[in-house]
UniProtKB/TrEMBL annotation:
Binding site for NADPH: T10, G11, S12, I13, N38, N124, E126, G210
Pfam families (alphabetical): DXP_redisom_C (PF08436), DXP_reductoisom (PF02670), DXPR_C (PF13288)
Residues that hold 1-deoxy-D-xylulose 5-phosphate according to the record: K125, S151, E152, S181, H204, S217, N222, K223, E226
PANTHER family associated with the record: 1-DEOXY-D-XYLULOSE 5-PHOSPHATE REDUCTOISOMERASE, 1-DEOXY-D-XYLULOSE 5-PHOSPHATE REDUCTOISOMERASE, CHLOROPLASTIC
Taxon lineage: Bacteria, Pseudomonadati, Pseudomonadota, Gammaproteobacteria, Alteromonadales
The keyword Metal-binding is annotated on this UniProt entry: yes
Catalytic class of the enzyme: oxidoreductase
Entry GO MF terms: 1-deoxy-D-xylulose-5-phosphate reductoisomerase activity; manganese ion binding; NADPH binding
Entry similarity comment: Belongs to the DXR family.
The protein, known as: 1-deoxy-D-xylulose 5-phosphate reductoisomerase
SUPFAM superfamilies attached to this UniProt entry: 1-deoxy-D-xylulose-5-phosphate reductoisomerase, C-terminal domain, Glyceraldehyde-3-phosphate dehydrogenase-like, C-terminal domain, NAD(P)-binding Rossmann-fold domains
Species in which this protein is naturally found: Alkalimarinus sediminis
Length: 392
């Protein structure tokens, strides 16, 4: 029986993870669940999964949940804050940590799991984007197993040689073909992008996801973050990764070998497939995802990303090339920009403008350590807020 902690249990990935787990009560037991403020959903999950711990971000939400848990006569211990998140990420009883908190908020608990040498199912791409080489080095040192859950990276992982998955260095890889749906505005008139609403941006054509990653998909910053994520996970550079817009989201990414062979992983756009892969690895387990109907899909299309429409892709590649804390600065600026867009403080087309300005004004530092990354994250956020207040 594997003991699982789900960080970000009430989100889109958290719910999909619990759905897969619920189909395997003989294999997995929920050790801990965490959430930001959604007390109601957390209470429901405590009833369904009876975890040893439930962690809420703030003490007030924890108080509310504790009352509900007591009323339901559950044995779950309700705790709160950063210490609570650390406790359930690094607890000696835990085998697997699903890292599914959105954004930089997920970094510290994910790192706690890394340092404790857990198997980490990594959905929280921002954590890796921010800390890159430090994250990978810490995982190696602690013997933590990082299994990518982002569908593209999970696909790439599956297409890599078996020797790589058992710890040998990668060889004979020519390039990675990273697929992207192109989001909801792939064909929108450029002039209209200034007027699109948060609701339109959050309506993804193929995937149902949290609001932040949905906006990232619409700007294609999501693919930019994934480009950086792939560089760290698969020890490569943006020069060896080519983004392919593939609107059907059936091929989740590809790996091209030296002999010209291209391996692809395909499936319905449903995150339960990569989640089940991560939970079951090295075995395969039932995910609940229906079979792919290629007769119905009939056609797969590919196009090059439009650089004018999606400037965030270029900004992400640039941040990776600058190195040091530049990716943390990019990520922080993006989080602030997306938040401002969702709260109608800036327009959709100003997201990229804001990120570019922050990248010009906050100088990245090299020879970084974790503290430097946290400092530059804060500096980038402060700069973004200032620029928004000044009206860009
Ligand atoms: P979501 O917004 O649906 O859920 C986020 C979860 O994080 C919630 O449980 C929320 O309570 C928790 N959370 C938010 N802010 C927090 C804070 N400050 N402190 C503690 N907990 C906090 O997001 P999601 O779509 O599930 O995405 C989660 C992560 O997975 C993101 O990093 C995203 O990029 C990645 N991811 C998601 C998908 C997808 O299909 N949804 C696919 C690939 C990768
Ligand atoms: Mg993805």
């Amino acid at each position: 029986m594997k003991q699982i902690t789900v960080l970000g249990a009430t989100g889109s990935i958290g719910l999909s993870t619990l759905d897969v787990i619920s189909n395997h009560p003989d294999k997995y037991s929920v050790f801990a669940l965490t959430a930001n403020t959604n007390v109601e959903e957390m209470h429901r999950q405590c009833i369904a999964f009876n975890p040893r711990y439930a962690v809420m971000s703030c003490a007030d939400s924890a108080l509310l949940l504790r009352t509900l848990v007591e009323q339901s006569k559950l044995e779950t211990e309700v705790i709160s804050g950063e210490e609570g998140l650390h406790l359930v990420s690094e607890h000696s009883a835990v085998d697997v940590v699903m890292a599914a908190i959105v954004g930089a908020a997920g970094l510290k608990p994910t790192l706690a799991a890394v340092h404790a040498g857990k198997r980490i199912l990594l959905a929280n791409k921002e954590a890796l984007v921010m800390t890159g080489s430090l994250f990978m080095a810490a995982a190696k040192q602690a013997g933590a197993e990082i299994l990518p859950i982002d569908s593209e990276h999970n696909a790439i992982y599956q297409c890599m040689p078996a020797s790589y998955r058992s710890g040998m260095p990668l060889k004979h890889i020519r390039r990675i073909l990273l697929t992207a749906s192109g989001g909801p505005f792939r064909n929108t008139d450029l002039a209209d992008l200034a007027r699109v609403t948060p609701e339109q941006a959050c309506k993804h054509p193929n995937w149902s996801m949290g609001r932040k990653i949905s906006v990232d998909s619409a700007t294609m910053m999501n693919k930019g973050l994934e480009l950086i994520e792939a560089c760290w996970l698969f020890d490569t550079t943006p020069d060896n990764i080519e983004v392919h817009v593939h609107p059907e989201s059936i091929i989740h990414s590809m790996v091209e070998y030296d002999d010209g062979s291209v391996l692809a992983q395909m499936g319905s756009p449903d995150m339960r497939t990569p989640i089940a892969y991560g939970l079951g690895w090295p075995d395969r387990i039932e995910s609940g995802v229906s079979s792919l109907d290629l007769f119905k899909i009939a056609q797969l299309n590919f196009e090059k990303p439009d650089e004018k429409r999606f400037p965030c892709l270029r900004l992400a590649a640039e941040a990776y090339r600058r190195g040091g804390t530049a990716c943390a600065i990019l990520n922080a600026a993006n989080e602030e920009a997306v938040d401002a867009f969702l709260n109608k403080k800036i327009r959709f087309d100003q997201i990229a403008t804001l990120i570019e300005q922050v990248m010009e004004l906050v100088v990245p530092r090299h020879q970084e350590d974790f503290d430097m990354i946290f400092e530059d994250d804060l500096a980038a956020r402060a700069m973004a807020v200032k620029l928004i207040e000044q009206g860009l």
